[in-house]
Write a structure and sequence with these properties.
35% of the residues lie in helices and 21% in strands. By secondary structure, the chain is an alpha/beta fold. A hairpin with a 2-residue loop joins β9 and β10 (280-282). α1 (9-24) crosses α2, α1 crosses α12 and α6 packs parallel to α7 (137-150). It binds 6-O-phosphono-beta-D-glucopyranose.
């Protein structure tokens, strides 16, 4: 594996700890070598020390115990990611296939891919591209065209670690391995779907990246749209790469392009102000180190999307994500319609059923109404819950394993990335034009006021 940007934040926080975690669990090929490439003039020993530190700070206990072993499999090559000679040097001349991992800031993606195309990667090689994949539809198209000059589509892994999360995968199991779920996931029975990723963490010193991204690009354009896609797509004939990703693209293609009027009503953008956040007091987002307040970056985004299809016509899908909120809430909820007729007394008001995919912690739950214990004509809500033990392998590690195995099922295909931008770009344009206006919420609060969920039909 050749890691371009090996000295960067992403490699230190996510990639190196994930590799150490996989190594600890015996999941990496025994002969895997990791060649770090970056601009700093380091020798192998200094880079190995960096690897040990990164794993020590960001890895779990097993990963930390394997930090030395991972470091021993690492070497370093100084060079610029866009320099073909640097890549030649890192490749060596044994002709073995590599995984070229672009752990780079997006501005360097194009030069790095161009260099890879120029050098020519050995047969059987793969490339991993981190998010954000482009800044809009046009740039995603350009990046896709450039990638195709380096490798075939099957060998390109656009990373979205949410696809490696256990409960995200449980969406597939629950929908497509049970007789009782799939038949009711449609407009006849579902009132609305909410995909929620509320974090208590604030900026975590990531202004350099986050202030250019914001919650919409950071979470909704990729992770939350992916969850929505898995929840709403038609059943694929198999879960193999092509069948699954074809169905996902079909769904994305049927999401209506948001217009300004609906965005004015059905989207919210906001940023936090100083407050006693759960992880400790934070300043105004605008006053965080490295933030340019004039950019108006949102730390909270909410967006309602509509799927134009027989199955979902009139059912709102609301995606929301925010930082520095008072309550950690990370789940996808299917809210069902009320029963068509209630035989119980007028004083009984049962809540419609809700099916919840808890993403952190991993939990599945269904609220149902049952007879109360005392009076059989009194209704009470009961929760059917299943908790899943923590995944042994991190979501990130899970996707890396598939990359090493050459399986692109859990990676984003080029056309999926473009469709996601087709949906999100008009939102960015409207928000850039002040529709709706940027609002604020105190850190540690429940977030800005949001519109009442649309009722659909
Ligand atoms: C990342 C985002 O992709 O996902 C972060 O950049 C976010 O802002 C993170 O906090 C959440 O995912 P996880 O699985 O790391 O909690």
């Amino acid at each position: 594996m050749i890691v371009l940007g090996a000295g960067g934040d992403l490699a230190a926080r996510l990639l190196l700890p994930a590799l150490a975690g996989l190594l600890a669990r015996g999941r990496l090929p025994a002969d895997l070598q990791v060649v770090g490439v970056d601009r700093a003039a380091l020798d192998d020993a200094t880079f190995r020390a960096h690897v040990r530190t990164a794993v020590g700070v960001c890895g779990d206990a097993e990963a930390r115990a394997s930090a030395d072993r991972l470091a021993a499999a690492c070497s370093y090559h100084q060079g610029d990611a866009g320099d073909p000679d640097a890549l030649r040097g890192a490749l060596g001349d044994d002709g073995e296939p590599v995984v070229l991992y672009l752990a780079l800031p997006p501005v360097v993606f194009a030069p790095a891919i161009t260099a890879a195309a120029q050098v020519g990667l050995p047969e059987g090689s793969r490339m991993v591209v981190e998010k954000p994949f482009g800044t809009g539809l046009e740039s995603a198209r350009e990046l896709n065209a450039l990638l195709r000059t380096a490798l075939p589509e099957e060998a390109i892994h656009r990373m979205d670690h949410f696809l490696g999360k256990q409960t995200v995968q449980n969406v597939l199991g629950l929908r497509f391995a049970n007789r009782v779920v799939e038949p009711i996931l449609n407009r006849e029975h579902v009132a609305r779907v909410d995909v929620i990723w509320d974090e208590t963490l604030a900026l975590e010193g990531r202004a350099g990246y986050y202030d250019h991204a914001g919650a919409l690009r950071d979470m909704i354009q990729n992770h939350l749209l992916q969850i929505m896609t898995l929840m709403a797509m038609e059943p694929p004939p198999t879960l193999h790469e092509r069948d699954l990703r074809d169905r996902k693209v079909d769904l994305l293609r049927s999401v209506r392009t948001p217009d300004r009027d609906s965005l004015a009503r059905e989207s919210v953008r906001a940023r936090y102000t100083a407050g006693p956040a759960v992880e400790g007091p934070v300043p105004d987002y605008a006053a965080e180190e490295g933030v340019d307040p004039a950019r108006g970056t949102e730390t909270f985004a909410l967006l309602t999307l509509w799927v134009d299809s027989w199955r979902w016509s009139g059912v709102p899908f609301t995606l929301r994500s925010g930082k520095a909120l008072g309550t950690l809430r990370q789940q996808a909820e299917v809210h069902f319609r009320p029963v068509p007729h209630l035989a119980f007394g007028q004083d009984q008001h049962p809540q419609p059923n809700v099916l919840t995919f808890g993403l952190a912690p991993d939990r599945l739950s269904l609220s149902v109404n049952v007879n109360g214990p005392g009076d059989p004509f009194t209704l009470e809500e009961a929760l059917l819950e299943a908790d899943f033990p923590d995944q042994d392998i991190s979501a990130y590690g899970r996707v890396i394993l598939d990359v090493l195995a050459g399986d692109a099922t859990l990676s984003i295909r080029g056309d999926e990335a473009e469709e996601a931008w087709r949906i999100i770009e008009p939102v960015l344009d409207a928000w850039g034009a002040g529709v709706p206006a940027l609002t604020e919420y105190p850190a540690g609060s429940e977030g800005p006021p949001v519109p009442t969920p649309p009722t659909g039909r």
